[in-house]
Every structure is written in structure tokens, then in C-alpha cells.
Specification:
This protein is of the alpha+beta class. The protein folds into two domains: about 100 residues, Phosphorylase Kinase, domain 1 (2-Layer Sandwich), CATH 3.30.200.20; about 80 residues. Helix content is about 35%, strand content about 20%. Strands 1-2-3-5-4 form a five-stranded antiparallel beta sheet, covered by helices on one side. The chain has a two-stranded antiparallel ribbon with strand order 6-7. The model has no long low-confidence stretch (mean pLDDT about 85).
């Protein structure tokens, strides 16, 4: 627990909203968009994520409903729906899902593993079509590739880049403008559905689950 930002009591108090009574709480990782803890309880092992302050309660609720839709055909740790309101620590919402045994860093895999992941994503897209209008879109966090977020990333790179290299970004800006001009009229004709990004757990060099069900396009 010493590496985590949040105390045992802070994390434990949020778990009551999911009906989980923790026997132990261990810090797992700190990412860009969440701090992750492993929860051990008499009812099994769970993962709790203290989300970015930009995350919204409706994103957590969507992940729970979406997991229930796809779990029959795709291995996913179905997030738990909170009993009442989505719990928070300060301004950060917290979600919980079953822990999946995996090997961290075991994602150097071959074509067969990627083909399996591709099949799963295709299944998720098909199953998700009825939920497309409910999926989180154009979020200010995560990996959703929309113009606003892309521009923000360019601005962050621009600040960090040495002055003599910034001309490269100017060329990127002009290229993006040209692409947008030529494609904007066709975007409305594209098929829109719920497609997951490449958040995959591996074990023995094989994919065992797709995670982070709130990050959809």
C-alpha cells in the first residue's frame, strides 16, 4: 500500500458501494487515467480503479452495462454496478471489477494472439451496435481519437519540444487540416458502433481478457 496515493480506509470505504468488504488492499499500478488496487475478499479478488478527475460517473455505469452485454461471447471482467451512486474519493470516481489472473508485461505475442484479439473486437463491435448512442465519446481523457483530444496532445508536444524542432509540428498541423478538409464530408456515412481499444491482458503469451470497458470509440 505504501506506493499508492490513497489510504486503505479511503479505498475500503468506496468498496461498500459495490457490496465488497476488503480483507486486504494492495496497490498495483498508477497510470495516466487511473490508480489501480487489487482487493482480496471472501467473495474473491477484485480490481478497484480510482479514476482521473476528468472521468464521469456515467462512464463507470456504461462500462458495467456494456460488460454484461459482451460477456457471453468475449472474456471481459464485467464491472460491478454500484448499489446506489458511483463512489468518489475527492473528485475522482471509483469503479470495481473482478480481478483476472495474467502476466504483466507478457504482451510480446505473435499473430495468433492478435487474431484472437481481432475476433473479440469484432464480436464486441457487433454486440455493441445497439449501444452506440450511449457510448462515451469525445472525452477529454483516455485514448479516444477525436480532433479536440488530438489537438491537445499536439499542444503538449509543442510545449515540450525544443524550438528548433517545432517546425515539424507546424507541418503536422497543415497535414491534419488537409486531411480533415477532404474527409469531413464522408464521416457521416461511416458505420458507427462500439469498438474497444487494445487493452488486453495476457497469460502464457495468449490473450485472456479485454479490460477498461469504459474506453470506447
Amino acid at each position: 500500500m505504501t506506493e499508492g496515493t490513497f489510504s486503505h480506509s479511503q479505498v475500503a470505504s468506496t468498496l461498500s458501494s459495490y457490496g465488497i468488504e476488503a480483507d486486504s488492499i494492495d496497490f498495483l499500478a498508477r497510470g495516466t487515467y487511473a490508480e489501480v488496487y487489487r482487493i482480496r475478499s471472501s467473495a474473491g479478488d477484485w480490481v478497484a480503479r480510482i479514476r482521473s478527475s476528468q472521468a464521469r460517473p456515467e462512464d463507470v455505469r456504461f462500462a458495467a452495462s456494456w460488460g454484461q452485454v459482451v460477456a457471453a461471447e468475449v472474456p471481459v471482467p464485467v464491472p460491478i454496478a454500484p448499489v446506489e451512486t458511483v463512489p468518489r474519493i475527492g473528485h475522482r470516481v471509483v469503479d470495481a471489477a473482478p480481478y483476472i489472473e495474467h502476466h504483466p508485461g507478457d504482451d510480446d505475442v505473435g499473430p495468433d494472439a492478435w487474431m484472437q484479439v481481432g475476433r473479440w473486437v469484432g464480436q464486441m463491435h457487433r454486440l455493441g451496435m445497439p449501444l452506440a448512442t450511449e457510448a462515451p465519446r469525445d472525452l477529454d481523457y483516455g485514448n479516444h481519437p477525436h480532433p479536440k483530444l488530438f489537438r491537445r496532445y499536439l499542444d503538449q508536444v509543442r510545449v515540450a519540444m525544443p524550438d528548433d524542432r517545432r517546425a515539424i509540428l507546424q507541418r503536422v498541423d497543415r497535414l491534419v487540416d488537409k486531411i480533415t478538409t477532404h474527409t469531413s464530408d464522408h464521416l457521416d456515412s461511416l458505420v458507427v458502433g462500439v469498438v474497444h481499444f487494445w487493452n488486453v491482458l495476457y497469460k502464457d503469451k495468449q490473450p485472456v481478457a479485454i479490460i477498461d470497458l469504459d474506453f470506447f470509440l
